[in-house]
Amino acid sequence: ARTWEWTDECQVAFDRLKRVVTDESVLALPCYKKSFEVETDASDFAIGGVLMQDGHPIAFESWKLSDVERRYTVQEKEMTAVVHCLRTWRHYLLGSKFVVRTDNIATSYFQTATKRMKKWADKKRRHVEYSVGDFVLVKLHNILRHKDVHKGLTRRYEGPFQVLQRDKQDPSRAESSRAPIGAKAAYDQDDEQILADRVVRKRWCKPKREYLIQWKGLPENEASWEPAEDLWQFTKQIKAFYAEDATRASPE
């Protein structure tokens, strides 16, 4: 058997290691002119990280994983640690340069793949000016937000629509000859008068405006409340109703 030789150099290294482990770390104050370093790690039961600058720790963070998070894959645990630390130290990192370091190699490819996707997307991106008569696709969320349907279940674009005329300096804006996207009803009757309006409020839902419509050729007791998003055919009548209401409310 070979005898272990404990030299003075070994003793100095042991004393230094013992002092580092037992002493409390002194946190440095952040300097927002310098770059931050975010080092994260994850185990089977917890995640943790340290915010550093020039090799000096600024803040520590740890979090115990829940029963669901413990069933994550290794890559998912590492990404959970990165997201958690970035959220915790966002008041330090927003507006400053920072580098994220992790010991998991697979996680580092997420950023590389994102850069490659952006590179290919930028190659296909080009500036387009529309002319009268062109057919274009329109984003749905710019026209009407679907309140009862998750955005993942709706189409991103609708069309094609034909550009009828130029609108000032923006050639992509023009009046469409079709109904707004998401209109749920179309009425084959003409309205005689809009009698009143109201706002319907329900728990966990956004307020919805409705109008009491007096239909032409029908008695007054058959007037019905209709939602505002379905009355795309009666835009002029609604404007006239508000104008008349403002006239009645104004002092003589």
Topology:
Elements: H1 8-22, E1 36-42, E2 46-53, E3 56-64, H2 74-88, H3 90-93, E4 98-102, H4 108-124, E5 135-139, E6 157-162, E7 191-200, E8 208-215, E9 224-227, H5 235-249
Parallel strand pairs: 1-4
Antiparallel strand pairs: 1-2, 2-3, 5-6, 7-8, 8-9
Protein name: Chromo domain-containing protein
Biased composition (Basic and acidic residues): 165-176
Region (Disordered): 165-185
Summarize the structure.
With 252 residues, the chain is of the alpha+beta class. The chain is built from 5 helices and 9 strands, in the order H-E-E-E-H-H-E-H-E-E-E-E-E-H.
Could you characterize the architecture of this molecule?
- The chain has 252 residues and is of the alpha+beta class.
- It has 3 domains: 24-117, Ubiquitin-like (UB roll), CATH 3.10.20.370; 128-182, no CATH class; 191-249, OB fold (Dihydrolipoamide Acetyltransferase, E2P) (Beta Barrel), CATH 2.40.50.40.
- Helices cover 26% and strands 25% of the residues.
- The chain is built from 5 helices and 9 strands; from the N terminus they run αβββααβαβββββα.
- The strands form 3 sheets. Strands 3-2-1-4 form a 4-stranded mixed beta sheet, with helices on one face. Strands 7-8-9 form a 3-stranded antiparallel beta sheet, with helices on one face.
- A hairpin with a 3-residue loop joins strand 1 and strand 2 (46-53).
- The longest helix has 17 residues, at 108-124.
- It is elongated and about 110 Å long.
- It starts with 7 loop residues before the first helix and ends with a helix.
- The model has no long low-confidence stretch (mean pLDDT 80).
- InterPro entries: Chromo-like_dom_sf, Chromo/chromo_shadow_dom, Chromo_domain, DNA/RNA_pol_sf, RT_RNaseH_2, Viral_Replic_Matur_Polypro.
- Residues 165-185 are annotated as: Disordered.
- This is Chromo domain-containing protein.
- Residues 189-252 form the Chromo domain.
- Residues 165-176 have a biased composition (Basic and acidic residues).
